[in-house]
Amino acid sequence: MNNLETIHILLVHPPVASPSIPPWSLARTAPYLIGKGLSLEQYDANLDFFLNHLLTSKKLRRFVGLADKREKQGVFEKAGPETASLLADLATDPKKWAHKIANVGGDLEVLRTEKFFRPELCLEALRNVDALMSLASLAYYPSHIQWSRFYNPGVKDWPQAEEFIDDSDTNPFLSLCRSGLASRLRNSKPRLLILCVSGPDQLPAALTMARFSKKRNPELHVALVGDLQILASAEEYGNTLIPETDPEPLLALIRKLSGSISQEYKTAPDFSALPLKEYLVPVLVLPLQMTKDAESDLMSPSLFWADLEKYQQSFNTEGLLSIDHRLKPIHMMNRADKKVVTKAPFFIGLSCLLDESSDFEAMNSAYQAGVRLIQWRNPSGQLKFLTRRLWSASKAGIWNHVIMPVRSETDLDKELLEFMTANPNIVHSWGYSRSSNASSLSPLEKPGTSVAYTQVSKLPGRPFWHLLNDPLHLLLYLNRYGAKKLLRWRIRDKGLAVYAMGKKIVYYFVKPRDLPPGYLDEICLIIEAGGSVDTALVRYNLERAFLIGYAMEHGVIVGNSSLKRPRAEYVEAVNRQSGLDLSNYLERGYTSVRPEYRGMGIGAKLLEGLTERVGDIKLFSIISSDNVAAQKMALRNRTRQVATFYSKKLGKEVGVWMPEWMIED
Fold it and tell me: Is the peptide bond before 222 cis (omega within 30 degrees of 0)?
């Protein structure tokens, strides 16, 4: 069979996925489809969907008309509060929405240019795009379209969703099929259509495109490539289901369709046929996955870094976002080998399993190699080892984003949640995975509130990263501004103004009786939320304190400390166990800083201020042997440990500390 016609193949990336990054599935599959007798066309239908079928002024004006028509038909009678609020806003402020629609091109331009790195402009563009996608969703209610997510609450099982697939009123992908897909089927007349399904949110569109294509051309062979768990029961929509992790079934299919034509293919991904300048991002970032070599399951680090250099040379990329949990910080250590690479040409986001195998010693090397973000998944092991890994990454300057299981019910999950909410300077962001098959390019889910701090006054606004829905957007901002700066940015309650925490802190040192109304209550709550002291006597001790120090910013108490008058029986117990005479001493304690404000030196400044105001009175503090943070703070405040003893009440060693100038040699 040496004179066969050329076989045309159409390789498609269906909606809905992030429109900010080229699809790995197409770049990885395309090299297998290049050979004698084959003609390949790649179609990023996801990008086409967002840019040409959703986010254009013409389409959006049409969606407004469809939403109005559907409202008159009573479609939204049982809609939830968010949909009802959006409909009401459309009706009461049509000029605002007309302006948003007219300027959608400007919002997309912000996402593609240096304007993206101006926080207020970026947030305004992202917020407008989100609002316009919600508007478009009204036209297909109850379907809902988001940046990289699609769902329809009325459809529980997509492979069985026959009614949805053929329903123009609720299926937004049919219009894409009738124009973008239909023209490609008509012009190239492919023999084989390959739909690459990287995540569950792409399945509705993939099934729609498969059904549409088979109706147009029953002889067309349709193959669905992806996770077979996601594709389960989808056989009736295509001819073949192919696992994404093994190229052999795909190659066998090509040989079957092309006769005896031999296949010569490359293993390196190829992004050259994709519209790299059209993705909604100011800097090209490519997805990254490790591939096998001839002798092992994974590519060696040296070959891996050599391939990354080829990425830069071929596509002029500046960043990489891993979608492979096998790629770990330890692989970054090879970057130091100058025979492999002379400099770090990329900034990198990793997706890693959070377990005891994580190499905490590699974190500094990983940061030097360009790693700025790690998305940690599926926590397992002992909490003390996991927190050690997270701490080492944070200390190196890497942003930790932890993705918790859908149902966090194990003891480890509960302990980790408690640790994360109490330590935002270590676990900078976290959220819940929407499903076990969630892609690393899924939106960054917003976390719940720390249970420990639900009773204290809320900080104004919310963290800046909350509006960075795409992990790629977070990675870009981390590379530009760094984790420390980004962590302190917040968005005010109203509008899009961004402010940095810690810029306007004011310190106060007063007698308990001089505290403004309600302040003592708030200080007690902050101390109790910290969870490191016996709360039974907190108010009693503070009401009798010699002096209370507290720090405020934007009308909220963010930290506090005090000079207590210790109870006689407590002093006697410490004297007996330590061998010291602390009679008539003040005790420095109850130092507590809100999690969001830790690492800014607030505790140290409070202690300094209190010590400066103590006069001739001597003071001491009790610090447990495992409280390394308090010990470091004490050392910075020129305080030394003068005695130790075992506290039966605490069940551990504690130290007695005093200011150096009060210690008699």
Answer: no
**How far from each other are the two terminal CA atoms of the chain, in whole angstroms?**
99
Q: What is the mean pLDDT of residues 63-90?
A: 94
Which neighbouring-strand residues pair with 43? 12
Q: Which residues pair with 39 in a beta bridge?
A: 8
Three-state secondary structure call for residue 436: coil
Given a contact cutoff of 8 angstroms between Cβ atoms, the answer to whether 403 and 382 are in contact is no
For residues 403 and 432, is the Cβ–Cβ distance under 8 A?
yes
Average pLDDT of the residues of the chain = 87
pLDDT in tens, 230-283: 888 788 898 999 998 888 888 888 888 876 554 555 667 889 999 999 999 999
As given in the structure block, the two tokens for residue 474 are 């977070």
DSSP conformation letters of 317-349: --EEEE--TT--HHHHGGGG-TTT-SS---EEE
Cα distances (angstroms) measured from residue 482 to each of 372, 410, 647: 8, 33, 42
pTM: 0.90
Residue 146 has which token pair?
């988001």
- What letter would DSSP give residue 423? -
Q: What is the pLDDT of residues 626-659, one digit of tens each?
A: 887 788 888 888 889 999 999 887 788 999 999 8
Q: How many whole angstroms separate alpha carbon 572 and alpha carbon 552? A: 35
> Would you state the pLDDT for residue 344?
58
At 171, list the tokens.
């299926």
| Dist CA 461 CA 618 (whole Å) | 42
Give the three-class secondary structure for 202.
Answer: helix
pLDDT of 34 over the 50 cut? yes
- 101: tokens are 């629609």
| Coil, helix or strand at residue 207 | helix
Categorize the per-residue pLDDT at 64 as very low, low, confident or very high, splitting at 50, 70 and 90.
very high
Of all residues in the chain, what percent are helix, strand and coil, respectively (each to 5)? 40, 20, 40
Q: What is the DSSP string of 576-642?
A: HHHS---TT-EEEEEEEE-GGGTTSSHHHHHHHHHHHT-TT--EEEEEETT-HHHHHHHHHTTEEEE
Where b means 16+ CB within 10 Å and e means fewer, 604-632 reads bbbbbbbbeebeeebbbbbbbeebeebbe
pLDDT at 639: 87
Phi, psi of 44 (to 5 degrees): -85, 85
> Are the C-beta atoms of 372 and 347 separated by less than 8 Å?
yes
Cβ-Cβ contacts under 8 Å for 665 (sequence gap 6 or more): none
520-566 pLDDT, tens digit per residue, is: 999 999 998 877 667 778 999 999 999 999 999 999 999 999 999 99
Q: What mean pLDDT do residues 130-159 have?
A: 91
> What 3-state class would DSSP assign to 653?
strand
Residues comprising the chain, all counted: 665
Instruction: Evaluate whether 84 touches 76 at the Cβ level (below 8 Å).
Output: yes
Query: CA-CA distance, 37 to 219, in Å (whole number)?
Result: 19
Residue listed under structure tokens 């192919």: 242
pLDDT (0 to 100) of residue 598: 87
Per-residue confidence band for 333, with pLDDT thresholds at 50, 70 and 90: low
Radius of gyration in angstroms for the set of CA atoms belonging to the chain, rounded to a whole number: 30
User: Higher-confidence residue: 256 or 350?
Assistant: 350
The 10 Å Cβ neighbour count of residue 82 is 10
For residues 432 and 406, is the Cβ–Cβ distance under 8 A? yes
Indicate the residue type of 298: L
